[in-house]
Design goal:
It is a single chain. The protein is built from 2 helices and 4 strands. A 4-stranded mixed β-sheet has the order 1-2-4-3, covered by helices on one side. The model has no long low-confidence stretch (mean pLDDT 96). The chain starts with a strand and ends with a strand. Helix 1 packs parallel to helix 2. Helices cover 37% and strands 28% of the residues. The radius of gyration is 10 Å and the shape is globular. It is an alpha+beta fold.
């Protein structure tokens, strides 16, 4: 699984890194973000591109798995 660690980054960087990772991904992509609005943006982007996104709140950050 490809992992994008975007914790602590400001918008739009997490979304740009997610888009880049999804371009070449033949497997699931795990995205780590700090803020709730970043989590929602990543989920929305994934769904707009025909992917499912499952989010989990961890201690101090969110994990979004895109498949």
């Amino acid at each position: 699984m490809k992992e994008v660690d975007a914790r602590g980054l400001s918008c739009p960087e997490p979304l740009m890194l997610t888009a880049d990772a999804m371009k070449d991904a033949k497997e699931a992509v795990k995205v780590l973000v700090t803020e709730p609005h970043q989590k929602m943006n990543v989920e929305k982007y994934a769904k707009e591109h025909g992917k499912s996104a499952v989010s989990t709140e961890k201690k101090g950050y969110f994990e979004v798995v895109i498949e």
